[in-house]
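Can't paste images in this forum, so I'm doing it all in text. The chain is below; anyone willing to post the predicted C-alpha cells underneath?
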Amino acid sequence: MASARSGKGSSKSPRRSAKSAPSPRIKSTRNTRGSGADRQAPPKPSPGDPFAATREGISAIDAKLVELLNARAELVMEVGRIKRESNLPVYTPHRESQVLDRVLKSNPGPMPERVLEAIFREVMSGSMMLQQPVRVGYLGPQGSYSHQAAQKHFGASADFVDLRTIQGVFTEVARGHVNCGLTPIENSLGGGIVETLDALRDSVVGHGRAQGAPITICAEVQLAVHHAMLALTAPDKVRRIYSKPEVFQQCQKWVATQYPGAELVPTPSSSHAAQLVAEQSRAALSKGQMPDCAAIASPMAASLYGLDVVLHSIEDNPDNVTRFVVISRQEAKRTGDDKTSVMFTTADKPGALVHVLQEFERHDINLTHIEKRPSGRRNWTYTFFVDAQGHRDDAQMGSALAAAGSHCRELVVLGSYPRSKRIL
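Text version of the structure:
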C-alpha cells in the first residue's frame, strides 16, 4: 500500500498508531527563548509613514501571540505526557468540539467566526503534533474532496495517508496502521454514499472485525463542495470530461447544457480524473497537438496536478455540501450536543420498521437521517442506517435504543460523536 503525506509525493511505510507508537522525543522549550528584551526588535517604520503607529501596535501584538502560543504549547506537551502514560488517544473529538465552542462564544468580533475557527483548528493540529503525530487515512488521491475535508478538519500538521479506496480506509483503521480515517457518507444533493454505508455494514457483520479492532464513528465533518472544470485547453476544445459519477450527477444540468455532445468518462475519484487529464494533456502538447479533455474536480486538485481552472463553481446547486465521518478505534465522549449513528435489521414481521421508528418518537429522540442498503446476507433483506440527536450515554437515548432493539434482529450503535455545527 502506498501512502503519501499531504503536499509531498514521496511514499513511506506506515507508522504505528497513536496507541502503540513510542513517546516522541520532544525537548521542552521552557526558559530557552529568552526574555522580550533579548529578542531583536522589529525595524521601525520610516518617519512620516501614516501606518507607523498602527503597524508597531500589530508587531507588538504578534510578539505577544507567539509568546502565548508557546506557553500553550508547554501545557499541551504536559497533556501529551499524561496521555502517553495513561495510554489515551491523542485525537479527542469531544475535547476539540468543546474548545471550538468556547472560543467562538467568547469572540466579540470583528474577527469572523469562520476565520477564528480555521486559526484554532491549526493551533489544535500543531498541539496534536507536539503530543504525538496523528496519521489520518482518506480516500485519495491527493486533491480529492476527502483530502480537502481531512486537511480542514485536522489541520496541516497531521500526517495524511492516501488509502485509495473507502474500504482501504476502514481496513487500515481497523488494523491500527492509521489513527483515524475520513470517508464521505452523505451528499446534500446525491444522498448516501453507498461504499461507506456498505463498509460500515461489513465492519459489523464480520469483515472489518476479522482484520482488527472494532471501529467506531467518532466525529463528523461538513464540507462545502464547489466543482470546477480543470484543463490545459480552451473550454470550446473539450470533447471528453472525466470525473467521479457522483460529481457528474451534481453537475448534470450544467454539463448537459454546456457540453451536450461531450463524452463523460467515469473515474474512481475526482482527483484521479485530474491526474488523467494532466497526463493526457501533456502527452498531446508534447506532440504539438491541442488537448481535448477536461476534469471536473476541486481547485485544490488543479494546483496539485498543474492544471488550469477553466471554469469555477459549475455545480447545479451552490449549496452543495458533503458530510464525512471520522472513524477510529476510540469512542468520543459526551459533549451535550451529539449525534448517534445506528445500524439495524428488523424482525420479519408486519410493521417492524414502523415499531422501531416509533420507539425513537416515544422517547422524544429526533432522527436526522435514514438510509437503507441490502443486508449482504440474504436477498430482499435490508439494513437500515439512522442518525439520531443525542449520545448513547444519555439516559433517554439508552432507553430508546433498548426499546428499538426489541423489534430488531440486530441493532448496532456505530458511534456517538459531537454534532457538526459549521460547514468548512
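Residues 242 and 276 are 8 Å apart (CA to CA). The two ends are 30 Å apart (CA to CA).
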